[in-house]
Amino acid sequence: DSIQGTMYNFYEKC
Amino acid sequence: MLELRLVQGSLLKKVLEAIKELVTDANFDCSATGFSLQAMDSSHVALVALLLRSEGFEHYRCDRNLSMGMNLGNVSKMLRCAGSDDIITIKADDGSDTVTFMFESPNQDKIADFEMKLMDIDSEHLGIPDAEYQAIVRMPSGEFARICKDLSSIGDTVIISVTKEGVKFSTAGDIGTANIVCRQNKTVDKPEEATVIEMQEPVSLTFALRYLNSFTKATPLSETVSISLSSDLPVVVEYKIADMGYVRYYLAPKIEE
Questions:
Q1: Confidence band (pLDDT; 50, 70, 90) for B166?
Q2: Which of B4, B11, B20, B207 lies at a 20 to 30 A Cα distance from B241?
Q3: Which of B248, B241, B245 is nearest to B51 (CA)?
Q4: Could you read off the pLDDT of B85-100 as tens digits, one per residue?
Q5: 8 Å CB contact of B127 and A7
Q6: d(CA B151, CA B169)
Q7: Inter-axis angle of helices B10-19 and B72-79, to 10 degrees?
Q8: Which chain A residue is nearest to residue B250, measuring alpha carbons?
Q9: How many CB atoms lie under 10 A from the CB of residue B31?
Q10: Count of A–B CB contacts within 8 Å?
Q11: Backbone angles phi, psi at B97, to 5 degrees
């Protein structure tokens, strides 16, 4: 099964 | 003081149509580099990054960096009042809580001012480092839009796989399955009709079609689209805006649990 990733899984806040 | 004059005003109209479905409110950032925006959709699954470089404007004055919060639906309402051949000027005074869009007809016989209230938007800015992608596919933007639309009538998600043979878009749903393979095709009359695949290594990722379909609202901005894929990164779907910049969409893939 897969879940939807979000931007926060890949990029950091700056 | 901010004053940006864009002779090809239709570009701005198209940009708004390209992003307003994905993002409700956003900060437009103005600096010496250009007019830019970075915003996520409400679920933080997708991100849009816009850049219109200052050199692309006929006149570009931005005395100090300025961030202007706007409701994109309202901006779109204003810009829809501009004729497709109109010259559009964006004006704002320092410290003002409004922005003015001025529309001039090509022969200067009609000039309109639309003033819009700005809003305070608490938006997060993400750092997106340059990355080497495992595969980059460049194809006609209309073709990509057609594929996303066709597949979304069958399923909700698409698996995009790039191999030496080409790029495959696959979906599955209650009524059946669908696979569309596009092979590299450089031998076309016009370069914008080519499908070009630069592959370092094969890659396969799964995405929600709903978002990709939303990205294709940018199709009128560019004849071609580039799709950059890596197994550990969001896909980047880029539409170049002739001589001015780009609209880039980032979409997080489905992650195996």
A1: very high
A2: B207
A3: B245
A4: 999 999 999 889 999 9
A5: no
A6: 8
A7: 150
A8: A7
A9: 13
A10: 55
A11: -105, 20
